[in-house]
Amino acid sequence: MTNILIIGNARDEKLSKWNSLIENSDIIIACDGAINRCIEQQINVDYLIGDMDSITQEILEQVKFSNVEIVEIQEQNNNDLTKAIIFSQRFEPKAVNIIGVDGGNSDHQFCNYMSLIECNSNAKIHLEDCTVCAVHQSEIKYFSVEIGTLFSVFSIGTSSGVNLTGAKWELESSTLTPSSNGLHNIATNERIGLSCESGNLLLFVNR
Asked: Could you tell me which of 155, 141, 43 has the C-alpha nearest to residue 99?
């Protein structure tokens, strides 16, 4: 099974802090202008995906003469992260990890979370202070954590039949709506279980 790493185009982020993810990835995908930092930080990229609007012609020519496969997608209905996640699904990956999306414009940051929902993806976003992943309807996910870890669960739209185990405040067949109620729960077990019969959830796990 394939481990895929997607690198986003957050400005000025040092990617060396994610060395373990980089080294353990079988395929690395750069989103558009992220290729600039990948070249600067000597990260070997397999695919470059996007509309290429954040890349100079000089860099694009440099990439063309490397082993990077360029996947140019001009369609503007999705952001580059969504395009990369959809592309990654053809490899039937074991895991999809996303880095390089920390900070930047607030609307772009929020859009990254929506990409997880839009793509019905099991991808995980790695941020400086937490990880973010989606739990979709009719899906049960278990997450390994340290006891005492803070985490938050938010519903995108209305989610019904929500079950949460391994936490100080657990849920059983509950209905969640978009609100702040899911902020700062505490893991009481080394494994959190989260599921919903309908809807979509976002799980933020603090580092």
From this structure: 43
What is the mean predicted confidence (pLDDT) over 81-87? 95
How does residue 189 score in pLDDT terms, banded at 50, 70 and 90? very high
> Are 16 and 40 contacting, i.e. CB atoms less than 8 angstroms apart?
no
Neighbours of 159 (CB within 10 A): 24
Q: Which amino acid is at 177?
A: T
DSSP structural state of residue 128:
S
**Which residues, other chains included, contact 131 with Cβ-Cβ below 8 Å and sequence gap of 6+?**
124, 125, 204, 205, 207
143 vs 75, 161, 164, 165, CA distance in Å? 35, 19, 11, 10
Q: Looking at residue 38, what DSSP letter applies? A: H
pTM: 0.93
Would you say 192 and 166 are in contact if contact means Cβ atoms under 8 Å apart? yes
Domains and CATH numbers, the chain: 3-128 (3.40.50.10240), 135-206 (2.60.120.320)
Give the contacts of 150 (CB within 8 A, at least 6 positions apart): 184, 185, 186, 187, 206
Distance CA 52, CA 173 (A): 45
Distances (CA, A) of 139 to 64, 162, 164: 41, 10, 12
Buried b (16+ CB within 10 A) or exposed e, 103-115: ebeeeeeebbbbb
Question: Could you read off the pLDDT of 131-176 as tens digits, one per residue?
Answer: 999 999 988 999 999 999 999 999 999 999 999 999 999 999 999 9
Q: Per DSSP, what are the bridge partners of residue 192?
A: 143
